[in-house]
Amino acid sequence: MLAHASIQSAWQGYGTGSLDRDAADLHLLCQHLRAHHGVQEVVLMGHSTGCQDAVRYMQRYIADGEGRGQETEAADEAPVPRLLGTILQAPVSDSEWLSSYPDLEPLLASARALVAAGRGEEVVGRLHVADAAPISAARLLSLASVGGDDSMFCEGLSQEAMQRILGPVGCRPCLLLVSGADECVPGGPERVAERAEALQRAIGGSASVVVVPEAPHNLAGHEVEACAAVCAFLEALTGLARG
């Protein structure tokens, strides 16, 4: 069964959302799949900023304080399917990508002022460098700031910080499915594999890397190779689950 998660942050909704809200939406979806479709096991796949959602879901609902895999269910909560693993497709740094647009600085300055005044949830403008989504001050700074809530894949983070952020993902098998010619990665295609390996080290031994050669950020024209990598990962996971 394949389910496309159309959560509140889908399409232009991300501009006024947060990773915590996204993770909560995904948790509700998992409860629904278990209760109404009998789904017992799931694999979570995120693309681009959706990779942050997958990481936050792991942080909030799967890994306990010691990093062990432990689905967290309160006594009054509906059960969720067991999470077998995650796929992070095109995990790139939003802050690095947005830093390539210096004309955003006035918008960022306005966002900083609103957050400082305790008005971070107010819409500060539209993100015209992307899809013109209306974006709140807090969400813009989360995406654009090194160390912001969405800052998970940035080279400006120390190895210790990356391990703290991504370590919870390592309590389940993880596939880092990266685009070999990702236009959102600074430094060009030659840096893609190197940066993916840094993420792999931060996650730990449960993570594997597959680079789709010459593929752009959205995998356009390279869907067959990407699907083959995903299917191979899923087959290995189901084999482990049966074992």
Q: Could you please describe the fold and organization of this structure?
A:
The chain is α/β, with parallel strands linked by helices and 243 residues long. The chain has two domains: 11-92 and 161-242, Alpha/Beta hydrolase fold, catalytic domain (Rossmann fold, 3-Layer(aba) Sandwich), CATH 3.40.50; 97-144, no CATH class. The chain is built from eight helices and six strands. The protein has helices spanning 19-37, 49-62, 94-98, 105-116, 137-144, 159-166, 192-203, 223-242; strands at residues 41-47, 82-89, 123-127, 133-136, 174-179, 207-212. The strands form two sheets. It has a four-stranded parallel sheet, sandwiched between helices. A two-stranded antiparallel ribbon has the order 3-4. Strand 1 (41-47), helix 2 (49-62) and strand 2 form a beta-alpha-beta unit. Pfam families: DUF1749. InterPro entries: AB_hydrolase_fold, SidJ.
Widest sheet: strand ordering? 1-2-5-6
Alpha carbon gyration radius? 18 Å
User: Can you tell me the CATH architecture of the largest domain?
Assistant: 3-Layer(aba) Sandwich
By helix and strand content, what is the structural category?
Answer: alpha/beta
Low-confidence stretches: 64-70
CATH superfamily of the largest domain: Alpha/Beta hydrolase fold, catalytic domain
Main pleated-sheet profile: 4 strands, parallel
N/C terminus separation: 21 Å
Question: Which topology of the largest domain does CATH recognise?
Answer: Rossmann fold
Pfam family, one: DUF1749
InterPro entries: AB_hydrolase_fold (IPR029058), SidJ (IPR013744)
